[in-house]
Write a structure and sequence with these properties.
By secondary structure, the protein is mainly beta. Helices cover about 5% and strands about 60% of the residues. The protein contains 1 helix and 9 strands. The strands form 2 sheets. Strands 1, 2, 3, 4, 5, 6 and 7 form a 7-stranded antiparallel sheet that branches. The longest helix is centred in the first third of the chain and has 11 residues.
C-alpha cells in the first residue's frame, strides 16, 4: 500500500491510500492507523476485490454471520471509521460490492483482498473518539462521552 498525507491543519489530517493487487485490506488499514496514531478517523473507498467476506450482525446470537464473496467484485461503496478499542485501532466499515451480473451485496467488511486497486481517503478529526462495550448488543460502540441523549436533546439556540 502506498500512502500520502494530502492535508494537515488544526489537528485534522487527510491521507490518500492506494492498495495494490493481493493486499489484505483490514489488517493493512489497522496497521496504517497504528503507525500514524489515528484515533478518530473516517474513511471512504472505491476499487475492486478478488474476494471478500462480508458480515451481517445477528441480533439473536450477538455475532457476525459470515457472507463469503468468492469472486471478483467492484467496490461500489466502502465507508467506515477507525476508533481505538482497548488501545488498538479498530476498523468498523460497511461495504457494497457489485458482481459481474450487476447484483450488489453488502455488509460489514470482515476480510478482503484487493484486485487490481483500492483507493481510500482517510480523514483524522481533531476530536478523539473511543469505543466502550454496549451490554445490549455485545458490541463496542462509539462513546461520545456525553450523557444519554435519549433523555436529553440539545435545544436549538433562540432565533433573533
Amino acid at each position: 500500500m502506498k500512502s500520502k498525507l494530502l492535508h494537515e491543519a488544526e489537528g485534522q489530517r487527510t491521507f490518500a491510500l492506494v492498495f495494490e493487487t493481493g493486499e489484505d485490506v483490514v489488517p493493512a488499514l489497522r496497521d496504517f492507523a497504528a503507525r500514524h496514531g489515528l484515533h478518530a478517523s473516517h474513511l471512504t473507498a472505491i476499487g475492486a476485490f478478488s474476494e471478500a467476506v462480508l458480515g451481517y450482525f445477528d441480533w439473536q446470537t450477538k455475532a457476525y454471520m459470515r457472507i463469503p464473496v468468492g469472486e471478483q467484485v467492484e467496490v461500489l461503496s466502502l465507508a467506515g471509521n477507525i476508533v481505538p478499542k482497548d488501545g488498538k485501532p479498530e476498523l468498523h466499515a460497511h461495504v457494497v460490492v457489485g458482481k459481474r451480473d450487476g447484483t450488489a451485496h453488502g455488509g460489514h467488511l470482515l476480510e478482503a483482498h484487493v484486485r487490481p486497486t483500492l483507493e481510500v481517503i482517510v480523514v483524522e478529526s481533531p476530536a478523539h473518539l473511543r469505543r466502550t462495550p454496549d451490554e445490549r448488543s455485545g458490541l463496542a460502540l462509539i462513546d461520545l462521552g456525553v450523557p444519554d441523549e435519549r433523555h436529553r436533546r440539545e435545544e436549538a439556540p433562540p432565533q433573533r
